[in-house]
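Schema walk-through. Below, the input block comes first and the output block second. Nothing else is stored per chain. Lengths vary across the set, and this one has 194 residues.
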Amino acid sequence: MRNTEKYRRNRRVETDNKAAFSVPINGQGREPYSLTVLGDFSGGYNTCGSIAAFNFMQLLGQKPSFSRILHLTEKYALISLPFMKKGKLGAHAFGIARVLKIMGIKCAVTASAKKADKALSDGRPVILLYQDKKQLYMHFVVIRISGDKAEIFNRYNNSVSTVFIDKTDIKAITESFGGRIILLIIPNRKERLT
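--- output ---
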């Protein structure tokens, strides 16, 4: 299936489920999100990077098109190797940052937990790409501090809502769900917050 055909399919899913795509997404493995397509896979498999970009923009006060983010992710961010199906390894952080830039959000990719903590304490959301310590998979989530809680968006494949934890340090947050930080995407200070 070509990218334009996937875009049309994803746009139909988004249009038919406007309410589900008008708020931050949790649970990429649930419908209607799992009905989308990215690369050679259904949305429940490899869309965490696209969902992170979507949620990030939502938390910065934007109203992004999820189908457009998927389209741009396929074009600029999917990890593609000749001997694997397209998208088997998902997206990479620098590609997701590029998608955000195309969508009008300037941000930086860093491995600095200190910079992430500063952004979180300033009220800005952070995209975290982490590696699970036991199963070795990688996953993108968005984190925002709200009061004394950390909100984690799209934490699990079947999440029905945002996950809240008490920790506010990015390393402690990551370790609380058995992960290690790989990279972080942080919005520039000038980005508008909701």
